[in-house]
Design a protein that fits this description.
The chain has three helices and nine strands; from the N terminus they run H-H-H-E-E-E-E-E-E-E-E-E. Strands 3-9-8-5-6 form a five-stranded mixed sheet, with no helix packed on it. It starts with a helix and ends in a 6-residue tail after the last strand. The protein has two domains: 63 residues; 105 residues, Immunoglobulin-like, CATH 2.60.40. The radius of gyration is 26 Å and the shape is elongated. It is an alpha+beta fold and 181 residues long.
């Protein structure tokens, strides 16, 4: 949906720009006083600029407000009982304070790295990326995730970190609410 809106907005503004160029080209054939044309041009440019700012501001508010990793959204969705899990990326492993969870557990992963930059990617059993963030030395990124399906999840490194990057895998077990897998 957003891509279609962006496409239509782009086509519309390119059309307006083409009209402006056609107008300027048409007026350039005339000889005479350009003062009135210049005033019209400045007026058109001002409204075009304000319109562009309004569209970009609206698009920013509509898209940035939907980011899934925001703490405000986690609190708004009822993530009151959050398990805090410390995650540290090291060449070539993930160290975690906890790696077994139950369905409906709401987890706040606090992700950092000890050596180089890593990419923290949480994948479900179908190998679909369900959460991600950067793991950087001397900085902690936070990502929230609610486990809704039991199974074995994997954390993979998404940032090439050296020769052993491909072995940087950590498994997380998510058990059903009433028992074990």
């Amino acid at each position: 949906m957003y891509q279609q809106i962006a496409l239509y907005a782009t086509v519309f503004f390119v059309f307006l720009l083409a009209l402006a160029f056609a107008f300027v080209y048409g007026e350039s054939k005339r000889s005479g006083d350009y003062g009135s044309i210049q005033k019209k041009g400045y007026r058109i440019r001002k409204f075009y600029f304000l319109g562009l700012i309004a569209v970009m501001g609206f698009a920013s508010v509509m898209t940035l407000g939907r980011l899934p990793y925001d703490r405000n959204q986690a609190e708004a969705t009822g993530m009151n009982e959050i398990k805090i899990v410390k995650v540290t990326g090291i060449q070539y492993a993930w160290e975690m304070s906890e790696d077994r969870f139950r369905v409906e557990d709401q987890v706040q992963f606090e992700v950092t790295a000890d050596d180089v930059t890593h990419g923290f990617g949480l994948y479900n059993e179908k190998m679909e990326l369900v959460a991600q963030t950067q793991a950087m030395p001397e900085y902690t990124n936070t990502v929230y995730y609610k486990f809704e399906e039991p199974g074995t999840y994997q954390i993979l490194c998404l940032e090439y970190c050296s020769a052993g990057h491909h072995v940087m895998v950590k498994e997380i077990v998510v058990e059903p609410e009433g028992g074990s897998l």
